């Protein structure tokens, strides 16, 4: 990538390297993930469990224009996951623990669809009978029963799942379920307050989890505390952070820290300031010019015409045009590809980048830099090769549960 063209462009490369910190050692990450996910060395049930997680990631992130295409894709991937599970030799599913795991995974794979499946409930019921300590099996069973409208039974399953230990996913589902149960009942206020409490507990387990924040604010909306929700101190601070609206995020987290110290918002303020300070140090030239020149000059050209992108393997069509960061427009940049240096010998190609010109002041200090954001791992190529789901870390945000 020709980010080093012209005076001051190396500073842009500095931030690009930092803002892509997840990929700062991509070469080593790829090698490590490949070694860890060697099918010959991995237990059969581990492979099946990973397939189930990939299936649910697909469910939560794949939304084509035609909803029927989504169902068809889920059906295809579900069939593949079930075939992998069925390939486990019978002698490896004899013990009660093995049988419980098998039933759990089978029920979970069958329940990936938005509609209720009795077969999924039957397998999940067998799983919790064989091994009542399987928290995720109870969670899956609760979600499955919820789809057929038995909210009380679903709540019992989720409560039993939570008894196994604190879990943000279970807490979020309980929060959403109790919000659903509160509609049109006498003890509405009590159920909504319980819903809020579950969401707050989920947030304390992981303050960066968008699902927990979503459950919390949706429940607040159900209480019609609109004036409180949309007041400047608390509105959208977590979302603003990840959208790089740092000024709003800092103001929101700082006010939240004063309002409720239990949410660890002060720690989030410090993390954002630390990131901004690191960027500022790079922009001030605290990295040797000789080193930066070496990084920029060693960039190797990548011909996007030879790549192809799909859900399973990234496909870059010949319509993608390589550009420098200076040619990007504020917001999404469709059909453009930006190349960057990770380390000598490695190259990062970013497709359809989202560009922001960050400019803010905080505590009498001014920050200004250019930033690129990518929302999906399919937008990333390392040395011209696509990343796999196992080589990435995902954060998902759900608006609501649709039984």
TrEMBL record:
Pfam families: TTC5_OB. Residues 338-394 form the Tetratricopeptide repeat protein 5 OB fold domain. It comes from the Eukaryota. PANTHER family: OS01G0506200 PROTEIN (PTHR26312:SF194), TETRATRICOPEPTIDE REPEAT PROTEIN 5 (PTHR26312). This is Tetratricopeptide repeat protein 5 OB fold domain-containing protein. It comes from Vigna mungo.
């Amino acid at each position: 990538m020709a980010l080093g063209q012209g005076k001051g462009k190396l500073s842009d490369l500095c931030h690009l390297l930092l803002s892509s910190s997840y990929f700062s050692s991509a070469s080593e990450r790829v090698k490590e993930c490949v070694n860890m996910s060697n099918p010959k060395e991995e237990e059969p049930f581990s492979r099946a469990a990973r397939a189930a997680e990939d299936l649910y990631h697909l469910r939560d992130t794949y939304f084509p224009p035609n909803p029927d295409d989504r169902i068809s894709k889920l059906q295809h991937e579900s069939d593949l996951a079930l075939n992998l599970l069925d390939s486990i030799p019978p002698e490896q599913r004899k013990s009660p623990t093995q049988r419980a795991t098998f039933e759990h995974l089978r029920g979970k794979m069958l329940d990936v669809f938005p509609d209720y499946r009795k077969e999924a409930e039957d397998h999940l019921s067998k799983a919790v009978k064989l091994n009542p300590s399987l928290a995720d099996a109870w969670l899956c069973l609760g979600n499955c029963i919820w789809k057929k409208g038995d909210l009380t039974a679903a709540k019992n399953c989720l409560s039993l799942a939570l008894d196994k230990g604190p879990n943000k996913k279970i807490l979020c589902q309980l929060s959403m379920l109790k919000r659903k149960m509160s509609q049109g009942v006498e003890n509405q206020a009590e159920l909504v307050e319980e819903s809020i409490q579950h969401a707050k507990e989920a947030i304390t387990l992981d303050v960066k989890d968008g699902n927990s924040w979503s459950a919390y604010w949706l429940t607040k909306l159900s209480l019609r505390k609109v004036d409180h929700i949309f007041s400047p101190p608390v509105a959208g601070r977590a979302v603003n952070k990840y959208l790089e609206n740092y000024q709003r995020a800092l103001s929101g987290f700082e006010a939240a820290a004063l309002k409720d110290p239990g949410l660890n918002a002060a720690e989030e303020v410090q993390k954002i300031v630390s990131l901004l300070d690191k960027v500022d140090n790079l922009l001030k030239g605290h990295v040797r010019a000789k080193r930066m020149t070496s990084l920029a000059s060693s960039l190797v050209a990548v011909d996007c015409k030879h790549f192809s992108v799909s859900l399973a393997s990234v496909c870059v069509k010949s319509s993608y045009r390589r550009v420098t960061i200076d040619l990007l427009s504020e917001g999404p940049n469709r059909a453009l590809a930006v190349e960057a240096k990770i380390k000598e010998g490695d190259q990062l190609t970013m497709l359809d980048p989202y560009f922001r010109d960050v400019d803010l002041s905080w505590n009498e200090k001014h920050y200004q830099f250019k930033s690129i954001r990518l929302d999906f791992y399919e937008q990333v190529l390392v040395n011209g090769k696509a990343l796999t789901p196992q080589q990435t870390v995902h954060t998902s945000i759900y608006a609501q549960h649709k039984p």
